[in-house]
Amino acid sequence: MRQVVQQQLLDLNRQFYATVADEFDRTRQGLPEGMTTLAQILRAQLPAPARILDVGCGNGRFARALAQQGITGAYLGVDADKRLLDLAAAQAADLEGMTCRFAQVDLAQADWFTRHDAVRYDAVVCLAVLHHFPGYDLRRRLVAEMAGLLAPAGLLALSTWQFLSVSRFIDRGAAWESIGLNEADVEPGDALLTWNQGAPAVRYVHNLALEEVERLAADCGLAVADTFRADGKEGNLNLFVIAQLGAPG
After folding, report:
1. How many helices (H) and strands (E) does the chain have?
2. How many domains does the chain have?
3. pLDDT recorded at residue 10
């Protein structure tokens, strides 16, 4: 993907979240099944206390999922949107057993991970984030950077939106021409989806199927340890993948 196209899509998504932050937060107060299941898996595998980094934390609701499962320790949530971070800090202020901090970072910048304490994490989670970053090379770079923040026995947990398997999301697609692009500018699995809750907006998404996530993991020296699907009306809208350092070969 050409850099100018990639930058246009990144800017589109920054504007999207700046436009819909409050409505996005309002519609994402509950804890979906996938987050709860992931927190249960982490509870069985993490030390106590644990160090957890939430990459693209949004309104911070995964911190609540961790606390509800009795996981204790230090949580750092990073995100590009200041309004969502303010909402996250307010919601996570009094979580029992969990000390929460939040920081504004731009994940598209290669040095985002140097802007907080130089520690290694028992778990790095990146939920519903990778599919908003255009181009395989950029997604691979992000996964490699997150893998580099893991403690030796740490876990990297990813979730990706399987929207191409659901007709109601396909029907929300917008033409690339609406933003001055065409099919030749983007990669297979890329799409524009409209948002009509509150202010109308459009965002870039990429459908990361399991095969691509496994390829990303292998390219970054990770071994996939577990996968499951959950959420949405169909119960399978999100793909969750848990990986560890040490991919064979």
Report:
1. 7, 10
2. 1
3. 95
